[in-house]
Design goal:
2 helices; three-stranded antiparallel beta sheet; signal; KTSC domain-containing protein; three-stranded mixed beta sheet; alpha+beta
Length: 108
């Protein structure tokens, strides 16, 4: 009986997990990209590199600091969109501390 109860509890926890949505920002206006991030909280944006043709680039972009892991901060980033080449959005970046100069350094 305990095994069945434990399995049921684990299934409920797993059912609450949601998959993160993926979008192509070059097919959306900048306002729509920002609205999508605001609505969903965190999304993956995938687009082609402008420097290296055929190279796909992607990253996870977030609405607020709440969607970042421990040791990460929300930092500005830009992605191409249908109406502009630099739509300002936010993504999580790991923070490393430079002990010699006692300052924080954002890692990519």
């Amino acid at each position: 009986m305990k095994t069945v109860l434990l399995a049921a509890c684990l299934m409920l926890v797993a059912a609450e997990a949601q998959a993160i949505s993926r979008y192509d920002p070059t097919r959306m206006s900048c306002g729509r990209v920002r609205a999508t991030i605001a609505r969903e909280g965190a999304v993956i944006l995938r687009y082609q590199s402008t420097r290296t043709p055929g190279l796909p680039l992607y990253d996870r972009y977030v609405r607020s600091q709440r969607f970042c892991d421990i040791g990460e901060v929300r930092a500005r980033a830009s992605v191409p969109s249908a109406d502009t080449n630099s739509c300002i959005v936010y993504k999580c970046k790991r923070v490393d501390t430079d002990r010699r100069f006692r300052r924080r350094i954002l890692q990519d």
